[in-house]
Amino acid sequence: MLRPTTLALILAGGRVDELNVLTYYRPKSAVPFGGFGRVIDFALSNLMNSGIEQVGILSQYRSYSLINHIGTGAAWDMLGRYRHISILPPYLGSEKNDWYKGSADAIFKNLDYVEYHRPEEIFILSGDHIYRMDYQEMLDYHRHKDADLTIAFLRVPRDKAHRFGVAALNDEDGERGGRVEQYWEKPEEPESDWASLTVLCFKPEVLYTALRENQSSSSFEFGADIIPMLVRQNYRVYGYKFSGYWGYTKTVEEYWQSNMDLLGDAPKINLEEWGFRTNLDHRRIRDFQPLMTGEATSISNSLVYNGCIIEGEVKNSIIFPGVHVKKGATVENSVIFFNNKIHEGCRFNKVVADVNSSYGTNVVIGSESGSAAGNVTVMGWNNHVPRQTRIEEGATIYPNLTESRWPSIVTGGEVLR
Amino acid sequence: MSPAKDALVLLLAGGVGSRLNILVKRRAKPAVPFGGIYRIIDFSLSNVMNSGLARVGVLTQYKPLSLMDHLGSGEAWDLAGRSRGVKILPPRTGESDSDWYHGTADAVRRNIDYLYDNPANEVVVLSGDHIYQMDFDAMIEYHRSKKADITVGMMVVDKSEIHQFGAGIIDNHNRIVDWEEKPKEPRTNLASMGIYVFEYDYLLDALRRDKNAVDFGMHILPHGIANDNVFAYPFYGYWRDVGTIQSYWQANMDVIRPDSGIWPQKWEIHTNIEAEGMIADRAPAFFRSGSTVRSSLVSAGSVISGTVLNSVIAPGVVVEEGAVVKDSILFTDCVVKKNAVVDLCILDKRVTVGAGSVVGEGNGYNVANIVEPSHLYSGITLIGKGARLPDNMTVGRNCVIDSRVYESQFVSKTLGDGESLLLENS
Predict the structure, then answer these.
(1) Which of A138, A176, A372, B9 would bridge with A333, disulfide CB 3.0–4.6 Å?
(2) What structural domains and CATH numbers belong to chain A?
(3) Are strands A358-359 and A384-385 parallel, antiparallel or unpaired?
């Protein structure tokens, strides 16, 4: 068999009302993660490492960052005779000329692309999650059960389950999986703790039929519409039980926590072990020289990529390429995206700072206690924060603020726009 | 006339560079790693790219595999495309004599068919083993404005160093009127950087004129100066021939200090991140709790738990708890185990230093290496690729440990100042 038979579709482009100012100009899947990559790199690396090399990405919200990031697909070795990544934006046609009305509608509108590849299995994944999974194992289970649809599930605390798609699974195959007996999308009072990771594997004909049927409805989502419909109609819907790390980062607090999971004595996320790959052409990070440190540098429990200059103190933090922390500045419990300049005397605690900003001397952000217990302070991109500015913990700073917008103190929890 | 960027580039990458000792045991000098993530040849190739030049022939002969792997398609320097390209020009068997190149001009002469296939107005001849930043486009414009047959890149060096170089005496118009190749008693402080712009036709004529003219500096230039138009193109800036262990070590240390004038990222130096062991698959450098890192260059993929001072660290290096690395250069994937000390050393790729070992011990900085006293005499100790030093080993100054020496092959736990551990038939 030379021609690959599995096609993957990544849902990457909805405007989700999550992650605050970090998603004002980019889809969540393109949010930076891990000190040099993007959230979608986890799904793409999983596909690469699972040998699934035909990929379509459905995107409609602020796609530029994502298009830029994917490039030719060569970064994930998905460039070749039978290997590709295609970005599938909404389009105008003689009949169809609408935005995607939901995840199911997005794929329905690209059925010509899907059918052209004559797949034997179709994976539908979210591009928003942080995890490592061998999709090949799930595919084996899907084939073994001759399932119409196989969904990956993970146990979550019952009190958190209302935020996810939840299923009642039988124990047909023990730890490996079982039949989906019932499915509820974001139920108010969950009756199970098996949460969907939004990793779906379809038999193509079943998917096509379901999508066409769904078009007469008024809602077009896999979780809310397609999966419940197939379960109701008694299709062979199976749950594949997953037990690894899963970072879903729906809130800034969760996003920050997932970043912290890269640190510590035994990090829960080990990028090299996971075979994590990103596109080093994006933002030209391949051309950055190694990190430079100065005479008074102190770095502890932190990840720092090439292209940084650290002359000050960095503790429990993730530092992306092109960040300059000057002498006498302290950054702790923070995530600092690309190309930020942090001047002398600045003190950051529990900050998530988006790209391309400069911080004048003695800017203090977050709790001064040094404790990571408080709220995250989020800084939008392209700001010049005047020197001596005090930004208290939990504040949100909008992107692109003009100089005159800046007060000398932004109080705790305030939103500065 | 075609734009200057149509000039053809010949990159001479065949030098043995034997004074770099075991660093060039299995690779050509241009392929020796530099500054954490680079190779020496990246500087010349990036200068070519940043000058807008697009056709490059790389002349290799000595241990070219590592170099060829690194060049790949040339895509890393934007040299892959319809009218752009890097061609590797290996030596080919000729009609007679030894088929190895007898000198720089001989190497170009033996690839004269490449010149025939790539007509241009000018040919830029470069060496692949220098660390510098230079705009060849400006040099070609200068060459044209002088209506020169040959233009030579030259810079002022200390008179005490001029004996290593070709030295030129110029008139008020920068015309070279006299030439001395490696003079013992210099009359000038203007040194050739081994960078030439030739008129295409002039170069062909010069190569065809006399088969015994095998070297640019010794033969072609003196003849040109006596008979034709040869000009000096003055260069001001950082330029190093990293041909000795001392100069190689110093140039690496210069990268740590931005005021030294070398700054690869600002110079837009590119490297091939896909080549084996490079940064494509490396996570950010991880500094564990309790680590200390000062005045150093640290590449992605390193895990630092101990102390790193004044050192250059390549991708994937592990410095374990309690270990100290000082004034040293560590190539990719070296491991310095618990409580070991590495002081004033160069460790080639995948070297392991056992727990509690001290490499670079004592004050015998002046005890030169016994086997190669002219290579190692300033205190630097060299460890070859893939060597594995046992726990609690002590290695002195100016020592050499061969590549792929394993724990069991160390007969003693001590290697004194100036001593070497070399494998036979290696």
Answers:
(1) A372
(2) 6-260 (3.90.550.10), 288-416 (2.160.10.10)
(3) parallel
pLDDT above 60 for B341 = yes
Amino acid present at A331: V
Residue ranges per structural domain of chain B: 4-260, 279-421
Confirm if A336 and A323 have CB atoms less than 8 A apart.
Answer: yes
Instruction: Write the pLDDT tens digit of every residue in B245-268.
Output: 999 999 999 999 979 999 999 999
CATH code of the domain made up of B4-260 = 3.90.550.10
> Which pLDDT belongs to residue B246?
96
User: Is the CB of A413 inside 8 Å of chain B's CB atoms?
Assistant: no
- Contacts of residue A116, defined as CB under 8 A and 6 or more positions apart, other chains included, come to none
Q: Nearest-CA distance from A297 to chain B in Å? A: 6
The answer to whether the beta carbons of residues A301 and B284 sit under 8 Å apart is no
State the pLDDT at residue A25. 87
Q: Which residues pair with A6 in a beta bridge?
A: A121
Hey, is the C-beta of A295 within 8 angstroms of any chain B C-beta? yes
Beta-bridged to residue A86, according to DSSP, are A56
pLDDT tens profile A42-65:
999 999 999 999 999 998 877 788
> CA angle B286-B289-B291, nearest 5°?
75
**Radius of gyration over every alpha carbon of chain B, rounded to an integer in angstroms:** 22
CATH number of B279-421: 2.160.10.10
Angular region, A211: left φ>0, alpha ψ -120 to 50, beta rest: alpha
Burial-class residue B147 by CB neighbours within 10 Å (0-12, 13-18, 19+): exposed
Residue whose C-alpha is closest to residue B315's, from B267, B374, B364, B275: B275
Residue of B nearest to A279 (CA): B280
Average pLDDT over residues B377-395: 98
Give the sign of the dihedral formed by CA B72, CA B75, CA B78, CA B79. positive
DSSP letter assigned to residue A266: S
What is the tens place of the pLDDT at every residue in A307-346?
999 999 999 999 999 999 999 999 999 999 999 999 999 9
Q: Report the residue of chain B nearest A314, measured CA to CA.
A: B287
Mean pLDDT in residue range A114-137: 96
Cα–Cα nearest to B30, from B18, B42, B47: B42
Core vs surface per residue B152-179: b (16+ CB within 10 A) or e: bbbbebeeeebeebbbbbbeeebbbeeb
Comparing C-alpha atoms, which of A4, A8, A239, A221 is closest to residue A114?
A: A8
- Whether the predicted pLDDT of A148 surpasses 90: yes
Q: Read off the pLDDT of each residue in B380-392 and give the average, rounded to a whole number.
A: 98
Candidate from A35, A265, A295 with C-beta closest to B294: A295
pLDDT band at A176 (very low <50, low <70, confident <90, very high): very high
R_g of chain A, CA atoms, integer Å: 22
Tokens encoding B408: 């069991």
Residues 6+ apart with CB under 8 A from B279: A280, A286, A306, B37, B273, B299, B300, B301, B315
β-bridge mates for residue A313, sequence order: A298, A330
Q: Which residues of B touch A265 (CB under 8 A)?
A: 288-289
Min Cα distance A374 → chain B (Å) is 22
Which stretch of A75-84, A159-168, A224-233, B40-49 has the lowest confidence by average pLDDT?
A: A75-84
CB contact set of A139 (below 8 Å; sequence gap of 6+): A6, A50, A121, A123, A201
